[in-house]
Specification:
Blueprint lengths: L1 H28 L6 H21 L2 H19 L3 H6 L18 E10 L3 H9 L11 E6 L4 E7 L5 E12 L3 E8 L4 E11 L4 E11 L4 H10 L3 H18 L2
Helix pairs in contact: 2-3
Length: 249
């Protein structure tokens, strides 16, 4: 009889623990989507709630302790189910207000290590006509003079959008920055940052892009070009640059 009761208790415990293990396993497989500073804050606040809740020795205290445990787990593991549901990643900046296409602003910051020297990278990137070779949203870049060029973007439905860009800051082998204004009030700026890695044969290439979209048809069409996740598009283009510089493909 006693063995039977123990077996029933084991079954009941398994019914409770197995779903919990499955949830924790899925949680562990999520990508980190909470920024480091935010994680420290969550862990500290969660620890405080746990201690406060346990001291109260009541149902309310228990709920506070459980909430604190959740915050501590969020801080320790750097994963937020809520952030995942609403498409935010504060660790990478994805989904933050600066990337909200509904307010007419596209802002992306990405970087990638490439196995070429800063000198090689600068030489290739300073020839701005090379940009469409990895920036897939560009159809062409036509050089006007040493600092000005005309950029043409590929738009949906076979349309094109053109603007003039000017290099306003240039530091040899370190940085190229440009700004532009174009059709129907489109404004943009961007920069390429080159940081040497190790013995100088590798480079951390950083890309910063901002497009301030005008209201109306031009802005809506340009937003469709980047889609809902412009950071993913730029990430793909950076990997295309890496392949181009390292293998020539």
């Amino acid at each position: 009889m006693e063995n039977k009761e123990m077996a029933m208790e084991d079954v009941a415990a398994a019914r409770f623990l197995n779903p919990a293990r499955e949830v924790l396993a899925r949680f562990g497989k999520m990508k980190i989507n909470v920024a480091e500073a935010e994680r420290w804050g969550s862990a500290a606040m969660g620890g405080g709630l746990v201690l406060y809740g346990l001291k109260r020795r009541s149902w309310t205290g228990l709920l506070l302790a459980l909430a604190g445990g959740g915050l501590m787990l969020r801080g320790i593991m750097g994963r937020s189910v809520f952030y995942r549901m609403i498409g935010i990643n504060t660790a990478t900046g994805h989904g933050l207000p600066g990337q909200d296409l509904s307010n007419g602003l596209i802002r992306v910051d990405k970087s990638l290590a490439i196995a070429r020297s800063p000198e090689d990278m600068f030489r290739f990137l300073r020839a701005v006509e090379n940009l469409p070779r990895f920036f897939g949203h560009l159809r062409s870049v036509r050089v006007v003079d040493g600092h000005r060029s005309v950029w043409t973007a590929k738009m949906p439905a076979g349309l094109e959008l053109e603007w003039e860009a000017e290099i306003w800051e240039e530091r040899e082998n370190r940085k190229i920055a440009w700004r532009a204004s174009g059709e129907a009030g489109l404004r943009s700026e961007g920069s390429l940052i080159l940081d040497p890695l190790g013995d100088g044969t590798r480079t951390q290439v950083g890309v910063h892009l901002e497009y301030d979209l005008p209201a109306g048809k031009v802005g809506r069409v340009f937003a469709k070009l980047f889609g809902k996740h412009p950071d993913r598009l730029i990430d793909e283009e950076l990997h295309r640059l890496k392949s181009l510089m390292e293998t020539g493909a």
